[in-house]
Amino acid sequence: MSKKAAVIRGDGVGPELVxxxxxxxxxxxxxxxxIVVDAGATWWEEHGGRSLIPDETWDVLEEADAxxxxxxxxxxxxxxPKSVAVSIRQRFNLYANVRPIRTFPKTNPPLGDVxxxxxxxxxxxxxxxxxxxxxxDIFIALRIITRRASRxxxxxxxxxxxxxxxxxxxxxxxxxILKETCGAFLEExxxxxxxxxxxxxxxxxxxxxxxxxxxxxxxxxxxILLSTNLFMDVISEECSALVGSIGLIYSANIGExxxxxxxxxxxAPKYAGMxxxxxVATILAGAWMLSYLDEKExxxxxxRAVDRVIGEGRTLTYDLGGDAKxxxxxxxxxxxxx
Length: 338
Prior knowledge:
The protein is α/β, with parallel strands linked by helices and about 350 residues long. A hairpin with a 4-residue loop joins strand 11 and strand 12. Helix 9 packs antiparallel against helix 10.
């Protein structure tokens, strides 16, 4: 029986990027069945409601083996729905948001070659969305940290280090100020770490590592960087600059029995329909999904093809120093697969 993946095309540049990704995946001869569903601000603006995800989409998500989320727009302001990504992460307990940060061939990164992985707790922290207005002057947001979620994401991070044969985990926190929440998170990292004696734990305060990633990013090579939801959201965005473009950063959200894959970047509505933006993050997130669905050979074909196209340097989008259209870069990737 073939595996099924729900696919959210998203908003802004999302639909054109997701269509391109599906063309690349089909070029491998994949047997996965892709089911396109609605979600995001574009759907919500037409239909309204308390969620950016319609009920019928939830039904497909529940039945699928995994899902892919294109870039989606999240409306701002009090009373607007929570983001598509946060909703899915919390519904399926996708506690590990994972972003590999690696230099691509011949891309001349701004601060030298890097190769590490950012792991972010994906279900709680300030993203729990618990905010309150006490009066006209005072507003409160709750930062929720549980030992259970901290243990789950810590174990994923240590396991990821083992899978890569890396010997270092970098725990990022601010326990000198947030003594209870960051304190509990850090305690659980060390408790789980006792089961991985060959992996060293480095501690960095969030403000210090923000500086060190600019000053000397290579000291973190072959490390897993682990932190709470908002801290790692910010740090992984900083890390994307180290490879030259967030258009290269692919991402997964992993739980016990389910996963969601997505590019790390946003919906960039000003570029919608311009055939301009970098498709790599979307394509490689899709390739990662194939690997998760036990199509590892097809996944590896895509990763190799993307590396070849970038390394050759002839068909690159503007953010990589080229002048190719999105569609032209996609066509070249497909040629390399075939």
